[in-house]
Amino acid sequence: MTVAARFEIPYSQFLDPHGKAVAPLPAFAQDPAALILLYRAMVLMRTYDAKAIALQRTGQIGTYASILGKEAVEAGVGAAMQKDDVLLCTYRENGVQIMRGVTMRELLVYWGGDERGSDYSGPRRDFPVCITIASQCLHAVGVAYAIKLHQEPRAAVCMLGDGATSKGDFYESINAAGTWQLPVVFVVTNNQWAISVPRKTQSAAQTLAQKAIAAGFEGVQADGNDVVAVHHAMREALAKARSGGGPTLIEAVTYRLADHTTADDASRYRPPEELAEAWKREPVLRLRNYLSDAGAWNRALEEELLRQSDEQVQAAAQAYLDTPPPPVAQMFDHLYATLPAAYAAQRAALTSAAGKSA
Amino acid sequence: MAQITLVEAVNLALARAMADDPDVVVLGEDVGKDGGVFRATLGLLDKFGSGRVIDTPLAENLIAGMAIGMAAEGLRPVCEIQFSGFAYTTLDQMLNHAGRMRHRTQGRLSCPMVLRTPCGAGIHPPEHHSESPDAMFAHIPGIRVVYPSSPKRAYGLLLAAIRDPDPVVFLEPTRLYRLFKEDVIDNGEALALDACFTLREGTDVTLVTWGAMIHETLQVADELREQGIAAEVIDIATLKPLDFDTILASVARTGRCVVVTEAPRHCSIASEIAATLAEQGLLTLLAPVQRVTAPDVVVPLARLEQHYLPGKQQIIAAVKKTLEFA
Fold first, then answer.
1. Structural domain boundaries, residue B251
2. I need a labelling partner for A277 at 20 to 30 A (CA). Which of A204, B14, B261, B273 fits?
């Protein structure tokens, strides 16, 4: 018997759970100033996340999906992307979106139940968050195909979760991305849980990264709680994509420290000791420990950062709360480029009825 | 000017659109060297290259989904789904994304794509090749559904669909692909996407139909004329949005209406037309609206196909019923 194929999945980690360097840091991370930028972003998104949950608990936004525990993935990805790349993400990637220039007010407007929140003032070509699992992977293939056809030095970044890798949409997408060697990076956040179903129930595959091997391109694992590892993997994948080297799949191994959404209660299915263990590996404290040990961070800087982050988040929340509800005509006005005459009467009836009830 | 078939008219419109606009791309299974299983994309690969005439991996959901990504990035993708029964896996993408993209981004992103698929029964094919998904697609907000029934209308409506800024599902009647030829001028002129076509004028009864059933319906109109009955024939062609004004105006003149479709009856477009006539045209009706449809059954295999498709006799009987109503 001969061997038809062999493969390996590299796993990268630079900072251990205590924030100690376990490998020589990549060039970008040599300068603590660069890591401080990542740290600031992570603290801001954690502050935003807590506020969003508070707004939901007080009935001021609808169901919200927390990013708690995922800050290193979000910051590592967001900081590596260029402005004209295209992000196709899920509902659990608000941190990346903030780094891309979507305002926290816009994000809250969306969670508050208003489509105008997806009319981003910043990254105009980024896709709105995808709720139906893995269906954005197919869009990412189309975006990347268009980029390649137009010979532009840009890339599509498609983010998804561990559960999404069970879907046909995902397999169809990675297969096509490999076939055409498209400029796309698939970032799989493996947070161990798809609502109540654990990672081992999703797939017998030893890693999720190896699914890329079947599609004919590189798959790597990174410690998803180590922002240096995620950012490094992402920089390499994007450089490869932009220079015609084709797709990459990055499996960021992390843990969902929150419930699935504010409508979920993870204590129904998740052992508390597992959660307690996961907190010991969480990403924000890890980076702070590293920076403190390096003499680049201290209590005063921390307090100032928390104060600034809180101020920004409070201002965004207030701006959201001050946003008047959308007009009823919103349902019709961007349904088509020009509303067909056939629907004019429906629009008129609904806006007139709303006017009377107002 | 040349006498061409409906499928050749589709091919002509695709070539024209691709020549006019470098952002128009064609994607699907076997659309490249093979020219499509019905040859609708014949010759396009040689003219426009494999970057724009794209043989995809075998995955219909991928074809629709990637078209959405392409469209958002400025391309004008025209997808081919090989057979109607394979189009159902695209419903998720068409419903959850194509039809919603403009709305959910409040106009920031849009989805100018076309999803073409042959459909309808009557060519004795294998299973899943004879479906009529028109009402399913027409139920999706934010998209258009077009169903031409002649080479001329196929050419003009496909050009319109490709140039339209919103997603269009373009259904092609397989049975008419090569049934007859028509003079088609390749002048690049599109037809309107929201107007019915009145194919015969008449004062006694209005026959409303679309797709391949146009063929039998026109024959019935001719036969009725010999019996002294003047039937007006309307090809609705653009199923969504639907030009009810033309239908209502016609029925206001004739007082009678028979709607003919080869789709199953329940929740069909025929039902929508009958309901609208009841709602907005009741006082002009001299008889109840009749629906001539396929039964609510699974499309049978070849041996029973002719019993499944509505025939001329059923249409004539329905017309007679409206005429005999007091």
1. 197-324
2. A204
The verdict on B254 and B307 lying in the same domain is yes
Encode pLDDT of B169-204 as tens digits.
999 999 999 999 999 999 999 999 999 999 999 999
CB-based contact B68:B97 (threshold 8 Å)? yes
Local structure of A56: helix, strand or coil: helix
> By the CB < 8 Å criterion, does B107 face chain A?
yes
Question: Which CATH number covers residue B170?
Answer: 3.40.50.970
Number of C-beta neighbours around residue A328 at 10 A: 17
Query: Phi/psi of residue A95, each to 5°?
Result: -65, -45
pLDDT band at A356 (very low <50, low <70, confident <90, very high): confident
Structural domain contains residue A181: yes
Contact assessment for residue B153 and residue B237, using Cβ atoms and an 8 Å cutoff: yes
In tens, the pLDDT along A95-137 reads 999 999 999 999 999 999 999 999 999 999 999 999 999 999 9
Based on the fold, state whether residues A176 and A289 are members of the same structural domain. yes
| Residue A204 forms contact with B (CB below 8 Å) | no
- Assess whether A180 and A207 both reside in one domain: yes
- Length reported for chain B: 326
Residue A4 lies in a domain: no
Give residue A299's pLDDT: 98
Q: Say whether B61 and A343 touch across the interface (CB within 8 A).
A: no
Do residues A120 and A246 share a domain?
yes
What own/partner pairs with CB < 8 Å and gap ≥ 24 does B41-45 have? B41/B11, B41/B14, B41/B80, B42/B11, B43/B11, B43/B15, B44/B11, B44/B14, B44/B15, B44/B18
Which residues 160-199 on chain A approach chain B with CB closer than 8 angstroms?
A: 168-169, 172-173, 175-176, 179
Question: How many domains does chain B divide into?
Answer: 2
CB neighbours of residue A3 within 10 Å: 5
What is the value of ipTM here, to two decimals?
0.96
Give yes or no for B274 touching A (CB within 8 A).
Answer: no
CB-closest option in B62, B106, B141 to A119: B106
The whole domain housing A270 covers 11-326
Q: Are A335 and B141 an interchain contact pair (Cβ–Cβ within 8 Å)? A: yes
Whether B154 and B205 map to the same domain: the answer is no
* Contact call for B106 and A330, based on CB within 8 A: yes
Q: Hunting for tokens 């019709």 — which residue is that?
A: A332
Picking from B158, B184, B210, the residue at the C-terminal end of a domain is B184
Of A138, A150, A335, the CB nearest to B103: A335
User: At CA A189, angle to CA A188 and CA A195, rounded to 5?
Assistant: 115
For chain A, positions 5-44, list CB contacts with chain B under 8 A: none
| Alpha carbons B92 and A206: distance in angstroms, whole number | 30
